[in-house]
Design goal:
The complex is a heterodimer of chains A (500) and B (289). Chain A is 41% helix and 17% strand. In chain A, a hairpin with a 2-residue loop joins strand 2 and strand 3. The longest helix of chain A has 27 residues. The relative contact order of chain A is 0.09. Classes of the chains: A alpha+beta (500), B mainly alpha (289). At the A-B interface, strand 7 of A face loops of B.
Chain lengths: 500, 289
């Protein structure tokens, strides 16, 4: 060993560390079993409601008078307007959309802190469409065991037919999904006609194709992979949960130790794996709350079904708080498995605290944002004036020695009526204003006319006569006066001249 | 420093023999999908070179014969065809009629702004503010050749002192000193008189001596009191706008060697519709007459 060797080479060779668990896990195919019960019924109802809304809302009509779209909900890209029943949003008011997204996020926080991932399990489009696709799959290929058998067997006429029919049905649903999506951006009725007569725009076909493809891929193929890997929500949802959140829980104090139904000294869990078999993400809820759990509660139905068959009380798996699980466990632990233990554990539970600082905070923020949005919508200006000073030239010297500035006035109106507004200039006495092409009112003031739901542009020439000595740069304000003599809108600018 | 190539204990893959502070690089092959995309990109590039003008060789257009210039042609044709009905109406109307029709006026002002930027702004400035050296402002209220619609249209159509159009504005101011019509002291006196018309003179005696000289030599075009004459393109000398400077040296130079702006005729260069649009636009710039 020479002295040139670096110190780390001198160390004796350490045994190689054990290989770390790979970060990549192969996908395991999941064959969720059909289930019936209260939660499943609620899930069907919410699915029907969500899909029903999604497909019918674009067909709703709302009379806005002639020359305006009569679709109740329409994102009119061509005319840069968003219509929502009686509300009409201009592009510069896109912050209302931001507000809606903020409301959605806070609402999600509030719902999660109260009931866990109910959004994920019941109302998220990924869940709704996956559920629908699984229903189709089940109708065509049969339930869990039949699907597993079908996947294992070699390709045959039957397998080809069943698989083909499934994918055809999926594609049909996906196409309907993509078709409904584009209806939100075009007049639904006219667009449908154009769509089938191949006269719709390339954009329409592109987005139709895009949403058909994503629906088919995400709900047909990716499924729980979307929830587990693509969606950020499961990674930080735990931050919204606390010991009082109602989440899908396995009452281990009642179920453990697992064992055969007739065995002595075992808990209520008979280890039938019904809860695992119905899970759309393929997890075992008995391992506790975990990242993959979307809180759909189908395992509750599956377990209740088994408990009913065994003549045992339902609720081995239930929407339950961490606080109650811990309280029941502490109370029931000393007792041997059996009815006494169950009664004792259930008695130790306390009513769920729905209103607690965390939920108050979420509800407060929710109310605050909603209030700000409603307030700003009710107080929003329907008229806006932009004053753009012409900068080439900065000012014009007139033949009599006067100084003239020119301003472009842009008057945007969000109402559907034409308004006549008198323009006055607020500035040093002596300034004279002329608006090109404007008529004068009874007092000789120029009258600017708005265009309904549009912009009119005017050019104002403001002149300082030769005798008027002004500084180089003075503020002026343009004010529009409505028929009642009130100031409808004001906009400041400056009047420039040569150095005095 | 290359070291021994050995099998990595954890992954079972050979190392490349490169090591940096104890970090060794594994000799992993490139992912298959990456390689195939790479090969496909090469084929795509080759096909591109064959089909499109991708080589810097004059005249090489590829098998398709596609050029960017060729591609824009039909687009421009389409735009021209789209504008044509409006342009036809603009050709058939006088500038007054255009200004009176809100639709035509809006089109003319928008199109005139672009045409002005393309053709006129080089001399007259982006907003018609003019430029030093005899390029008059079009945004003020002085019009050398007249500020009516007809006068503006005529000036744009035929220009001034260009030798291109028989109808061009073509008057010529004499070179009073250079051609021996006035002596240098006389020029100085006349300059003082001209400045006195707007109260600028510093030498009242010289201004007085210049008055008869002015009446004799200048008043025929510029008027008795220097009020100017638009028919002759003789600007007013009694206002506050000075195209070539208001100091005495500049005025004396104007008298000695004469002045006269040159402007090209736009009749053959621009579509009559564009000329009409420009007329309406320029008229609106400073208010017109």
């Amino acid at each position: 060993m020479s002295k040139l060797d670096s110190p780390d080479r001198v160390k004796p060779a350490a045994p190689p560390p054990p290989a770390p668990a790979p970060l990549y896990a192969n996908r395991t195919r999941i064959y969720p079993k059909a289930v019936t019960g209260t939660v499943r019924r609620a899930k069907w109802a919410i699915l029907a409601l969500c899909l029903g809304l999604y497909y019918t809302v674009p067909l709703l009509r709302w009379d806005r008078g002639p020359a305006l779209p009569n679709q109740a909900v329409l994102v009119d890209m061509q005319n840069a307007r968003l219509f929502f029943f009686w509300i009409e949003i201009w592009p510069q008011e896109v912050y209302y959309l931001t507000g809606l997204l903020v409301l959605g996020a806070i609402g999600l926080f509030a719902a999660t802190s109260l009931f866990g991932r109910v959004w994920c399990g019941f109302a998220c489009p990924q869940t709704v469409w996956t559920d629908l696709f699984m229903w189709v799959e089940r109708r065509i290929q049969g339930d869990r065991n039949e699907r597993m058998r079908l996947d294992k067997q070699n390709w045959s006429r039957e397998k080809l037919l069943k698989k083909g029919a499934t994918h055809a049905a999926w594609l049909a649903i996906a196409a309907a999904t993509g078709g409904a999506w584009i209806m939100y951006f075009n007049d639904a009725l006219a667009m449908t006609r154009d769509f089938f007569t191949l006269r719709a725009s390339g954009t329409v076909y592109f987005f139709f194709g895009l949403f058909t493809a994503t629906t088919y891929l995400l709900a047909g193929w990716a499924r729980e992979q979307v929830c587990t890997y693509m969606c950020p929500w499961p990674r930080f949802q735990a931050a919204m949960l606390d010991e009082s959140s109602l989440v899908v829980s396995y009452r281990g104090w009642r179920g453990e130790p697992r064992g055969k139904a007739k065995a002595a000294g075992v808990g209520d869990c008979v280890d039938c794996r019904a809860c695992v078999n119905v899970c759309p993400t393929g997890i075992d809820i008995r391992d506790g709350l975990q990242l993959e759990c979307i809180g759909c509660g189908l395992c509750i139905d599956a377990c209740d079904d088994i408990m009913a068959r065994l003549d045992r009380p339902k609720g081995l798996i239930a929407f339950e708080t961490f606080a109650n699980i811990a309280a029941s466990e502490a109370a029931a632990k000393p007792l041997p498995p059996g009815p006494a233990r169950l009664a004792c554990g259930m008695q130790a539970r306390t009513p769920t605290r729905f209103l607690r600082p965390r939920t108050w905070l979420y509800l407060g923020v929710l109310g605050l944002v909603a209030g700000i949005m409603a307030g700003s919508y009710m107080l929003r200006e329907t008229l806006s004036l932009a004053v753009i000073r012409e900068r080439a030239p900065l000012f014009v010297r007139l033949s009599d020695g006067g100084i003239r500035n020119a301003y472009a006035l842009k008057l945007a109106s969000k109402t559907r009526e034409t308004e006549m507004l008198s323009l006055v200039l607020d500035g040093p006495a002596g300034l004279q204003m002329l608006v090109q092409d404007a008529e004068a009112d009874a007092q000789g003031r120029p009258v600017l006319v708005t265009r309904p739901d549009g912009i009119t542009q005017w050019r104002a020439l403001v002149t300082a006569p030769p005798g008027l000595r002004l500084p180089e740069n003075i503020p002026v304000t343009f004010r529009l006066i409505d028929a009642e003599g009130r100031i409808a809108v004001s906009e400041a600018s400056v009047f420039l001249g040569p150095k005095p | 420093m290359p070291t021994k190539i050995e099998k990595d204990a954890v992954t079972g893959i050979n190392t490349t023999g490169h090591e940096w502070d104890g970090l060794r690089e594994l000799d992993n092959p490139l992912p298959k999908w990456w390689l195939y995309v790479f090969y496909a990109s090469i084929l795509f590039a080759l096909a591109w070179v064959v089909l499109y003008p991708a080589l810097p060789i004059r005249g090489y257009t590829g098998l398709t014969g596609w050029t960017a210039r060729g591609a824009i042609g039909p687009v421009l044709e389409g735009e021209r065809a789209r504008q044509e009905p409006m342009l036809a109406r603009l050709r058939g109307a006088t500038p007054e009629q255009i200004a009176a029709d809100p639709q035509l006026r809006a089109f003319a002002l928008a199109g005139g702004r672009i045409a002005f930027a393309n053709n006129c702004a080089g001399c007259h400035g982006a907003g018609g503010q003019g430029a030093a050296g005899g390029f008059p402002s079009l945004a003020d209220d002085e019009w050398i050749w007249g500020g009516s619609f007809d006068a503006i249209q005529h000036t744009i159509q035929h220009g001034a002192r260009n030798g291109e159009s028989d109808d061009a504005r073509a008057t010529q101011m004499p070179r009073f000193l250079a051609d021996g019509m006035l002596t240098a002291p006389q020029v100085s006196d006349v300059a003082e008189h001209v400045l006195s018309l707007t109260g600028r003179a510093t030498d009242q005696a010289a201004a007085g001596r210049g008055a008869p000289l002015f009446a004799e030599n200048c008043a025929s075009c510029h008027g008795e009191r220097g009020e100017g004459n638009r028919d002759l393109g003789a600007p007013s000398l009694a206002d506050q706008i000075w195209l070539y400077g208001s100091d005495k040296a500049s005025v004396a130079r104007s008298i000695s060697y004469s002045r006269g702006g040159v402007m090209p005729a736009w009749n053959g260069r621009l579509d009559p519709a564009i000329v009409n649009m420009l007329t309406v636009y320029v008229h609106a710039l400073g208010g017109g007459e």
